[in-house]
Write a structure and sequence with these properties.
Chain lengths: 125, 453
């Protein structure tokens, strides 16, 4: 299980490939349109999921508040068929993963639990 | 079910028998009695007390100077206790628990007023694993925010909900007897405002200040000294030698007084007097506790002890005498629990019983029984119930020696009726600490009982 299917690890291991794809990635993120609504990429993770709910519970109160604010603003904009003025768009340096590291931790815990639940004990004697 | 071949079964049995024979083997010249006292040593800067009876199981405990007496803010000790065996830098809490289960071990964290104890009980051959685990818990626990909110807080709340009138009365008696330090509650009640002091950061800071080589002691019951010196040295390297900031610790002073707390369920009265400190040469206090007693040791009879006889006067209440020994002070308590009316009656009878001791009304026969009971309490405490483990550690972290069983027994045998009478008299003449919890309309004031507060 991973947070979302991604070639990130494979690409980041090869600097030449990473350098080549970086402008493309930047273009794609801008073209996806969520930044124009003031959202971050992690706001788009599907919330109806046990692990994501658990990870959301582990956000700090400030992060949690900001997330709700961004989502409500985006909903309102979508309703009005508008986008934010350009100076309020999410900047590339602000678009940092705040939820996926926690989500990865939650997945790792579940994986470890599953491994321990299904382990086979080999007796030495 | 897979049957093992007969040959392997036989060889297994033979092996096992050989091991058992080795454990039980004793030369004719060897001393017959097992070592009852803990032997103090220092291994790589860590204070260690060990005792080895060559049994198949080991009890290994870290006794840290982090009891409620030393907590700088209310609730930190219980927070630190609840954070024991949680996620560390190396492995998760779940892995710690599952691995321990696989090895057949038990992990336990509890605290007294002076010490926080992290204990592991396990099979003798697993010493390296559990030594590493305890050292890791001390120095590498992560104190994460989500564990605090998801687990620690809930555990504390559940334990708070379980506090009964007896526990609250005992805390209240300590509070009026010692005010700060030893007077801090052993477990904060649900109405204590701990949430403003207790969080994962304050617990981590408290851990930094208390989990250091100077403020912990390792107590091992049933581990070989060679094993300890071999494994403690490498694993305890990560434990810092000195705290970044030392914790305040004022000497205890006895005040005395009275406290009454209304509670809807349960009734309890604690009558407390200055008692014997750990390692203090006051055998008469131990004998007085044996004489007052409370719980009968034989069936279908109240026995000889004064309090159990006092309790027969009012069915529905039990009375019990205990000496709570701390490093620099002690508290001798008589605790009476039960229905309000019966508690009142038994409290009056208990004071009468104590007064009769002060007036010299103890028969020679009862004195002999009380001394025997005191000896039994001492020995069974250090052997069976595990209090010896905590006492040995508490003595070490406070710079004293572990309890010397043989000497203490000799001192107990030297107690006579005059000494006992004088001891009881001093108790009644000094200031008492009285705590009543429950139905205050019925429970007596100290004045009514004839005690000075």
């Amino acid at each position: 299980m991973s947070v979302a299917p991604s070639f990130y690890n494979a690409v980041s291991k090869r600097p030449w490939l990473a350098n080549m794809l970086k402008p493309l990635a930047g273009w794609y993120a801008n073209a996806a349109g969520y930044r124009q609504l003031g959202l971050k990429a992690d706001d788009l993770l599907v919330e109806e999921d046990e692990a994501v709910l658990k990870a959301l519970g582990r956000l700090s109160p400030k992060e949690s508040y900001d997330r709700i604010y961004r989502i409500r603003r985006a909903t309102q904009l979508s309703l009005q068929q508008k986008i934010l003025p350009k100076n309020e768009w999410t900047k590339a340096e602000e678009d940092v993963p705040y939820l996926s590291p926690i989500l990865a931790q939650v997945y790792a815990e579940a994986k470890e639990k599953h491994a321990l639940d299904t382990l086979t004990v080999l007796k030495k004697h | 079910m897979i049957c093992r071949p007969a040959l392997s079964r036989g060889s297994q049995l033979a092996l096992r028998r050989q091991g058992a024979a080795k454990l039980a083997q004793r030369g004719y010249a060897a001393v017959a009695s097992p070592k009852a006292s803990y032997e103090p040593t220092t291994i790589a800067g860590v204070k260690v007390a060990s005792r080895d009876d060559n049994g198949p199981t080991t009890r290994l405990a870290i006794v840290a100077k982090a009891g409620t007496r030393y907590e700088p803010l209310p609730g930190l000790t219980v927070g630190l206790e609840a954070f024991a065996f949680k996620n560390t830098q190396k492995r998760s809490a779940l892995r710690i628990n599952r691995e321990t289960e696989l090895l057949g071990g038990q992990l336990n964290a509890y605290h007294t007023r002076e010490a926080l104890v992290l204990q592991a009980n396990f099979l003798r051959e697993d010493l390296p694993y559990f030594t590493e685990l305890l050292a890791e818990v001390l120095s590498q626990t992560r104190y994460t925010t989500h564990e605090y909110h998801e687990e620690v807080v809930n555990v504390i709340r559940q334990k708070q909900a379980k506090l009964d009138a007896a526990a609250i009365a005992l805390d209240a008696a300590h509070s009026v007897a010692f005010h700060n330090g030893l007077g801090a509650p052993l477990y904060p009640t649900p109405s204590t405002p701990i949430s403003s002091y207790l969080d994962e950061n304050s617990v981590a800071a408290f851990a930094d200040a208390t989990f250091t080589k100077g403020t912990i002691a390792v107590v091992a019951d049933g581990a070989s000294e060679s094993g300890l010196s071999k494994w403690i040295e490498p694993f305890f390297k990560t434990v810092p030698a000195q705290p970044s900031s030392a914790l305040p610790a004022a000497a205890s002073k006895y005040y005395g007084g009275e406290q009454r707390i209304a509670k809807a369920s349960g009734n309890s009265v604690v009558l407390a007097f200055p008692g014997a400190a750990l390692g203090a040469n006051q055998p008469e206090t131990a004998v007085l506790v044996g004489l007052l007693g409370g719980e009968s040791t034989i069936k279908w009879s109240p026995g000889f002890s004064l309090l159990s006889n006092a309790a027969t006067a009012a069915p529905g209440a039990t009375a019990n005498a205990t000496n709570f020994a701390y490093s620099d002070a002690g508290l001798l308590t008589i605790q009476i629990n039960g229905s309000a009316g019966a508690v009142r009656k038994v409290a009056e009878e208990s004071v009468k019983a104590l007064r009769s001791v002060a007036e010299g009304g103890v028969s020679q026969e009862n004195l002999v029984k009380a001394i025997a009971k005191a000896k039994f309490n001492l020995l069974s405490g250090s052997e069976v119930s595990g209090t010896g483990l905590v006492h040995a550690g508490a003595n070490l972290i406070h710079g004293g020696k572990p309890l010397q069983v043989a000497e203490t027994i000799k001192a107990l045998e030297g107690v006579n009726a005059d000494k006992l009478k004088a001891a009881a008299k001093t108790l009644l003449e000094g200031k008492a600490s009285v705590a009543s919890v429950g139905d205050l309309h019925v429970l007596p004031f100290a004045e009514d009982l004839g005690l000075k507060v």
